[in-house]
Each structure stands twice: as C-alpha cells, then as structure tokens.
Specification:
434 residues, mainly beta, Neuraminidase, elongated
C-alpha cells in the first residue's frame, strides 16, 4: 500500500496499522483506508485490534502493620495491548484492596494471624492470573501491654489490675479493678481483649488498649480452682485445677475470646494437676508442672500440649528437669519459658527452663529469676521479644517485675515494680504484640 486516491483527489500515503489504546481511544488508528485495505487488515488479524488481559504482577515485599499489610509489587511488562486500569491485592484470609500502583495496603486483618498475599492486574479486556503467593506475614498490634490481675497480698487479697508496656521498662500503672479481690486468677488474651478466669468469678474480660474495671464474660463449666490458662488470638483455654473437695482435675475447657459466654469442653489432660502453668502460641499451647493430689500431693515435671484450633485430649511434650508448681509460663510462639515457682519438695526456686514450642522434648536451662519465689504471675505476659514475670512470694509478697529476652539465654533483668505487692496473681498480654 503506497498511495491511495479518494474521491476529490484526496490522497493518503501508507495508511497506519491500527494500534491499541485505552479508554475512548481503544482501537483507533490514523489514516484513511479503502474498503479493500480494511479487509486486508481484518484478514491479517490486525483489525479490530487484538487485546487480552495483562500478565500477572510480581510481589516484591510485604510489610506488616496494625491489622494491615502493605503489599509491594512490580507490574508485568505484558499489558495485553491495553493500559492496566487497576491492581488488586488479596489476602489468604479473604480481605482485599485495589489501587493504581504499588504498594497496596490491605486492612481489616487479624493481628497475630499469619497470612499470604497474591496480586492481580486488570485492563479493559480482563483480569490477569494471580501472582505467586508472597512470603508469610503476620499483622501486629504494635507495642504489647502486659497485665497483672488481682492476687494475694501479705495480709489479704487485692482487686487491683496493673499494666506495663512490655518493650519499655518502669513501674506498673493502675488499669482498674477486677470484679473481685481473689488469688489464683490466671489469664490469656487476643490482640484486643484479655480474659481472666477463677473458680468463683468464672471468666472476666477487659479491653487491653483502654483502662477500666473488668466485666463478666461467662461461667466455668464446673468449679476449678488454681487452674492454668493459655490462649491464642482466638481461643482461651483453662487446664485442670482443683475441685474444691478432694481431687485435682483433668478437664480442659475453652471460650472464644471475641464473644462472651460460658466455657465449652475441649478435652482431657492425661494427668490431673492444679498450681500448673500454661501458655499458647497461634497453633499450639503447652501446660506444665503442677501438683497432683491424686498422686499423693506430689509436684510433677510433665509438659503436655494441644492444638488450640481443634478439640481433644492433650499429648505428651516432654519433661522439665525438676518438678515444679506455682510457677510462671510464657511464650513468644517460638520459645516457652517455665519460670521459678516451687520445685522438688516445695522449695522456692529461681530456675528458668525453656522448650521450643513447635517441637517436642525435654526442657533446657535458660537462666535464673532475680530471686527464688513462688506464686508469680500465672498467664502469658510476653511480647515477640520479651518474657515478663511479676510478683510472687519469698516469705511474703513482692512487687518485683523481671524480664527475659527470648532470643538469648541468661538471667532476668529488672523491669520495675507492681503498684501493689502480691502473689498468686493472674497475667496476660496483647497477643502478637511487639
């Protein structure tokens, strides 16, 4: 096609092959065609302009925030012959967000829950296939709060609730009051709500980010004193306890933290204990030690575990190096620490041991608490990097708060003091907090 003469002697040289464009200009081309030329373009597959969905983007990184993740990506060089109008990032948990460029921030996610992402691209012809999945990422609450709940004093009991910011140091601050001043509370938490349980009071709850007094959550399935408690971001479990008469219990029950209501049966422990201690990560919870009245009142050194998202009986994990009761138990979802308490014949100890939560096996030495004491905070007070222990009793109640760094073994470091000296107090912290 060199020259084409039209009516009125209008001449066009080499009419232009049509090219793809976006929007209102989609498929336009310059030049004037004869009917034969248009037919030739159509026969060659050049008209109408061929177009398709774009190629899949490539994710370059994911950055966690508070209930959100920013997804960074690169567009595919293949646009399908049309301009890309939008990109969509989709979480494996179902939430999504769209935008015109990288990065895209997906909100409304659950803190403490690991997820992955894919990204698609869209043009006028359709939507690309999904990118390869991103690395796993866990939205985080931010700075974790640690909570110390009620407890026994040297002369009685206290209903005070204290709190700290775990990634700092300093003395605790008053949060509010428990529904009743009692000893033997234990606790657990999601990223937003803390639950504390007691044989008489049942379940109490508070909103972690605020301050104020506790509110009734629901009732225990059956009377159980001096039990252990553990949680992930969804469920709170209690383990064992004493029936108030003559027997230690094997019962495990649970509640769903985001709702309110009474406890539901989860399963049974292989060994009945009270004065035990437990802690949970996102998938697995462990329970350790305690005293077995049915076994003659002796302390035990056993560690067991359950998968929190299911129900059923516990399984053997391993053993601590000594029998232990009235101790603390914390985890950052990687390591589990068993802190101080009574060991080997009801003697106060400052010994701290640890296991790796995802495996099974016997505990190894971690270091020492600042002093030998029992009745320390019962419940997981942790951030992703630090373990906290508060209160307890030597010969009388103390107000000491200590911390450990999970990634390295070694002795406790002073954090500050509780507002009130007490022992046999409950503990909890922001699940997944830094």
């Amino acid at each position: 096609m060199s020259k084409t003469r039209f009516f009125g002697n209008l001449i066009k040289t080499n009419p232009t092959l049509p090219t793809a464009n976006s929007g209102a200009n989609y498929g336009t081309a310059t030049g004037i065609w004869t009917l034969e030329e248009a037919g030739a373009f159509r026969a060659a597959g050049d008209w109408p302009v061929p177009a398709s969905a774009p190629g899949a983007p490539t994710i370059s990184g994911v950055t966690a925030g508070n209930a959100q993740v920013a997804v960074a990506f690169s567009a595919n060089a293949s646009t399908g012959g049309l301009d890309v109008s939008s990109f969509t990032a989709l979480a494996s948990s179902g939430q999504s967000a769209s935008g015109s460029s990288s990065p895209i921030t997906v909100t409304g996610l659950t803190n403490g829950t690991a997820i992955t992402f894919t990204v698609t691209a869209t043009n006028a012809a359709g939507t690309s296939s999904a990118s390869s999945a991103s690395n796993s990422v866990t939205p985080v609450v931010g700075a974790a709060r640690g909570l110390f709940y009620s407890g026994a004093t040297t002369s009685g009991t206290s209903n005070v609730i204290d709190y700290i910011t775990i990634n700092s140091t300093g003395n605790a601050t008053d949060f509010g009051n428990a529904r009743s001043a009692r000893q033997y509370y234990t606790g657990g938490a999601s990223g937003t709500r803390a639950i504390f349980s007691h044989e008489y009071q049942g379940y109490d709850y508070i909103t972690i980010a605020s301050t104020g007094n506790a509110t009734n959550f629901g009732s225990l399935n059956a009377f159980s004193t001096a039990h252990a408690g553990s949680s992930n971001n969804t469920r709170y479990l209690i383990w064992g306890g004493f029936d108030g008469s003559s027997q230690t219990l094997t019962r495990i029950e649970y509640v769903t933290i985001a709702t309110t209501g009474d406890g539901t049966d989860f399963g049974d422990m292989n060994e009945s204990t009270f004065y035990n201690a437990a802690a949970g990560g996102e998938t697995r919870a462990v329970c350790s030690g305690g005293q077995n009245i049915g076994g003659g009142g002796s302390e035990v050194n056993t560690i067991s575990y359950v998968t929190i998202g299911s129900t059923g009986n516990d399984s053997d994990f391993g053993d601590m190096s000594h029998t232990k009761a009235e101790h603390g138990c914390t985890t950052n979802d990687t390591r589990v620490l068993f802190i101080a308490g009574l060991k080997d014949g009801f003697q106060n100890t400052n010994q701290v041991e640890y296991v790796t939560l995802a495996s099974t096996g016997n505990a190894s030495d971690f270091g020492d608490l600042s002093s030998a004491r029992r009745g320390i905070s019962n419940g997981n007070i942790s951030s992703t990097t630090r373990a906290i222990s508060g209160g307890g009793s030597t010969t009388s109640s103390v107000n000491v708060i200590d911390y450990f760094t999970y990634s390295s073994t070694g002795n406790a470091t002073d954090f500050g003091n509780l507002t009130v000296s007490r022992n046999r107090l409950g503990g909890a912290s922001t699940f997944g907090g830094t």
